[in-house]
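Consider the following assembly input.
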Amino acid sequence: MGMLSDADEKFLQEAISEAEAGLAEGGIPIGSVLVVEGQIVGRGHNRRVQQGSAILHAEMDALERAGRLKAEDYRRATLYSTLSPCDMCSGTALLYGIPRVVIGENRTFQGPEAYVRSRGVELVMADDPRCRRLMEDFIAQRPELWNEDIGV
Amino acid sequence: MGMLSDADEKFLQEAISEAEAGLAEGGIPIGSVLVVEGQIVGRGHNRRVQQGSAILHAEMDALERAGRLKAEDYRRATLYSTLSPCDMCSGTALLYGIPRVVIGENRTFQGPEAYVRSRGVELVMADDPRCRRLMEDFIAQRPELWNEDIGV
């Protein structure tokens, strides 16, 4: 916990920047980047509010903006997210065989981590206080919007 | 198998119509509709080719086009798909607590059905020859595109 490599710290910071950009737009502050061989190939943030979207969680937005990648690119990718990926986003990582996910925090929400690990994906937990603070503040201010985002 | 109610047959036919529309656009022939209380609230088809999308599988397209629904709407919904939902689409059904999925066929591709059932979702298998034929013909003609769609 909290022992990321320098590269992982750098890319998690990019995901946090995406979360902050989403918050500034009036959206849900969750951000994500997809990295292949040390390069960001897609970056995004939750766009439920901004685009009236039921599917553009941060991770989905990052994958969509990465475009149509080859299977071998996904297979050497790391997905960074400021928050533990939900069932949808976890399932998407499984579909594409993304082998490694770096998670900002999983205290305010926890996706199906045990199942994802059972499918062979490495999950790295940063337990980052900036990620937690973004979600704690947002959930306190907009609980109904947060519940909508996780189907509650 | 193959013993759908009249309502399920009707909505599966709508999903097949979506698959055929996708095929006519040069896309992957998989279609889906989301039904709440006997009404189609979202309909869609795979748009990988048409929109260069990595996330718009048929079920995702139908859910996105349904817009931001309330949790209680998803909880009484049925999702129809011409093909067994993949990890991504299955995860999305789980996120939103969709309790029932009607599947056109699962012979050309099978998603994580056992896991989805273990999470409490009812899966109804139509084993429909029209759905199978659409996929068999497509896979024979465009195997590389099909593999891309399922991350292979």
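Chain B has one domain: 6-150. Ask yourself how this observation constrains the way the partners meet.
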